[in-house]
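FAQ: What does the model actually see?

It sees only this:
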Amino acid sequence: MDKFKKSRKVLSAVMPLALLGLSFNQTAFAEDNWKLYLKNAYIERDFENSALKDTGSWSQGISLFYTSDYQNTPIKDLEIGLDGSVQYAVRLSNDKHVADTILPFDKQTQDQAHDQLKYGGTLKLKYKDNVVRVGELWLDLPVTSVDTSRQLLTSYLGANVNSKINDKLSLEVGRVTKISPRNEEGFQKFSYTTKGVTHQSDGLNYLDVRYKFNNDLKAEYYFGNLEDLYNKHYLGLEHNLKLSDDMSLISKFKYFNAQDTGNDIDIDSQNIGLIETVKYKNHSIGAGYQQIIGDAYPLPDGFLPELYFINWNTTGFFKAKEKSYHVVYAYNFKDYVPGLNTVVKYAYGDSFKTADGKKNNESEWNLIGNYSFQQPMLKGVGLQYIFIKYDVKHGNDFNENRAFLTYTKKF
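And it is asked to produce this:
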């Protein structure tokens, strides 16, 4: 990355002055051509096992996203546009010489990078209700998601087509050739590591279909072929039942199926999940169940979260044959402290075993607080705090704290 040394020096000089942070809202890209995001992130994981090094870091991120308006072309109804992104982060804390999944880490020298730079561009073509994108992609789908839980964002390289067939049916088809993980620079091939062996893929081919039966019931089907690795199927249903003017019941059912494609990898895994959530005024309480059938559910390398899961936690809860249960309670303080909301979640998993055959179980507590400043002079500033407590019968317990100070500027 020698050619970026000058730009890094400038960014490094500016960064200590920017003690605020960024929050990512992909849906707002269509509303504003430019968005500046700052994110000051402190993350620390403390293991109870003194033999393990604690992980984490303090970093400052500054990112700029550009989304162009569509421009007319000589071809009737065909419009063209260009999007771009630059993400940069600098480490403010000392190097702990341990990988923390936040900033790049050199396994050979055992050094954590002082800074990180990611960038990309997207060419887009629009014809009536059809949009083609080529280049950097921001995907909110099974296998490929935008992860906001650390510092910089994961992005993907490829091409896709989005089509609105009618008011009820939409379709997305794409091919993703490379990935830029949250803690790496540049784009690299997809890979999957099992039993200590890493297998690479030339790309992900996918299809995503969404159908809206009515205002209360919608469905989604997804198929992904990770070449030379495995196939993934996903089926999801969501129903919203209005019980009264102040109360509603939201039901979500999700089914995943992952199968190897006849190579040296052996994968046969399914995930079935159901969650029921009752919303009453400012309160929201939910209970969910998730079961892994067969092998541990496969995830590509690069710390890609499967945010579509019913029960996705810091530790995943997707081990072979694992059954997990969780409850979540959220409250919006808008009537007392506008801009403040909190979430408490507890998850418990069992029916899985350690590598040497011992019966095992695990649990995790999450406490999340979010506050968006309402004062005009502090518009765009936000705070988030996350506390995580993880306990496992046979394994390594830990406590984790995450604190984010964020700022968003649209222009």
